């Protein structure tokens, strides 16, 4: 074990944690008079978006977003403190930060690979939510096999022209910009023929956005079609043909294997509290479900896992306790998403037949939150690479097992 002091013993970190707690206690808003989505994947209306955008902007102005980002790029220049702010937001049960793709993917990728001009132009809007971002990676035939991207960008007279089809694109209906992976070298080996772009999509000629209806009945995902869309070369991120390497930076942050300087989501403890409240309220065998040993065992198992995930997050902050720099973050993506799925499934089970009712049914318990959470949880176990893909990455990169073919 390292003899270095714990990060929580650092006076600056303690003072910043106190600032976060104090500000959140005074400024966390009451729920609005309309329903908010559970995550950014379920934003349905401009009204929801604008309320959540205002919340993220307030957090950015209070220095809870963009802590680690240099001041010249719209951040607060307080390196190493973003994780403290993110934990404070989760502990408070505060509304989520809506510009999730910007904070967890676009912002860190632009900071790592962008020019100074690109950082100055794009990062401030990511942090403040003045510009909403979406991710243009997945395609109908390129999901888990990301290197199979077929959308093409062709350089003609100094201007890129993009044609192709992206799918499962969260927030595309509301997005101003897209981080776009496109094939620029059709004859090259598939990993080597890609280039990464920052692509405007709102009001852009040749861009068509079509909402996709999810299992929940919501329109969180979209498909985006490109028909001879023009892109200036200054919107190319990094060198031509280095798109795969740039995309790996994005995926490291999306999978939680690198600290996202802008901030992002944390699993709220409120989910467990809501499950316990449900178990106290509904009956099983004529008695409160919380008194059933089977139910108590399932809930305690979820609590133990949640405590373990929190402990691993603390452990990941101490390099001397980490046997491999990628193991805990990559493992956390799998376990956290599957934990949320198991929790929502138990909530549905506890409701019995009512657990099959959608949010549109006035008889649905808790407004249909449990079946919606369960059906929606599959998006999270698929996003950033399915749990199966994630386990393969852990096997190959952490355990150094031979690659399966």
Could you give the count of β-strands? Answer: 10
Strand line-up of the largest beta sheet: 1-4-5-8
Pick out the low-confidence regions.
Answer: 1-7
If you consult CATH, what is the topology of the largest domain? Answer: Butyryl-CoA Dehydrogenase, subunit A, domain 3
Task: Give the distance, in angstroms, between the N- and C-terminal Cα atoms.
Answer: 39 Å
Mean pLDDT: 87
Radius of gyration: 22 Å
Structural class: alpha+beta
Per the principal axes of the C-alpha atoms, what is the gross shape?
A: globular
Q: Architecture of the largest domain, CATH level 2?
A: Up-down Bundle
Domain module count? 3
Number of helices: 11
CATH class of the largest domain: Mainly Alpha
Under CATH, the homologous superfamily of the largest domain reads Butyryl-CoA Dehydrogenase, subunit A, domain 3
Strand proportion? 5-15%
Largest sheet: number of strands, sense, barrel closure: 4 strands, mixed
The helicity comes to: 40-55%
Tell me the series of helices and strands, N- to C-terminal. Answer: HHHHHEEEEEEEEHHEEHHHH
């Amino acid at each position: 074990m390292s003899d270095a002091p714990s990060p929580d013993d650092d006076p600056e970190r303690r003072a910043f944690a106190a600032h976060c707690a104090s500000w959140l206690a005074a400024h966390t808003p009451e729920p609005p008079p309309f329903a908010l989505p559970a995550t950014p994947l379920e934003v349905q209306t401009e009204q929801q978006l604008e309320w959540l955008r205002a919340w993220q902007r307030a957090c950015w102005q209070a220095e809870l977003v963009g802590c680690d980002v240099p001041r010249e790029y719209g951040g607060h220049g307080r390196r190493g403190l973003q994780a403290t702010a993110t934990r404070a937001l989760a502990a408070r049960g505060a509304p989520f930060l809506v510009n999730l793709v910007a904070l967890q993917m676009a912002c860190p990728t632009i900071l790592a690979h962008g020019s100074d001009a690109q950082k100055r132009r794009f990062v401030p809007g990511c942090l403040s939510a003045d510009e909403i971002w979406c991710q243009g990676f997945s395609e109908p035939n390129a999901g888990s096999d990301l290197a199979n991207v077929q959308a093409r960008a062709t350089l003609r007279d100094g201007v890129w022209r993009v044609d192709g089809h992206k799918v499962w694109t969260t927030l595309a209906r509301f997005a101003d910009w897209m981080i776009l992976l496109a094939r620029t070298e059709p004859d090259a080996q598939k990993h080597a023929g890609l280039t990464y772009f920052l692509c405007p999509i709102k009001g852009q000629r040749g861009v068509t956005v079509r909402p996709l209806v999810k299992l929940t009945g919501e329109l969180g995902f979209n498909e985006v079609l490109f028909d001879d869309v023009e892109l200036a070369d200054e919107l190319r991120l990094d060198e031509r043909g280095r798109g795969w390497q740039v995309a790996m930076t994005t995926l490291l942050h999306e999978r939680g294997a690198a600290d996202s300087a802008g901030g992002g989501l944390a699993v709220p403890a409120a989910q467990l509290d809501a499950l316990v409240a449900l178990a106290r309220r509904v009956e099983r065998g004529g008695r409160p479900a919380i008194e059933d040993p089977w139910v108590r065992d399932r809930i305690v198992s979820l609590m133990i896992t949640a405590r373990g995930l929190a402990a691993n997050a603390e452990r990941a902050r101490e390099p001397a306790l980490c046997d491999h720099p990628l193991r805990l973050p990559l493992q956390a993506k799998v376990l956290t998403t599957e934990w949320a799925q198991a929790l929502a499934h138990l909530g549905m089970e506890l409701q019995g037949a009512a657990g099959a009712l959608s949010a549109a049914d006035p008889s649905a318990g808790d407004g249909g939150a449990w079946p919606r959470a369960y059906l929606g949880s599959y998006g999270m176990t698929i996003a950033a690479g399915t749990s199966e893909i994630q386990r393969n990455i852990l096997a190959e990169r952490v355990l150094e097992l031979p690659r399966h073919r």
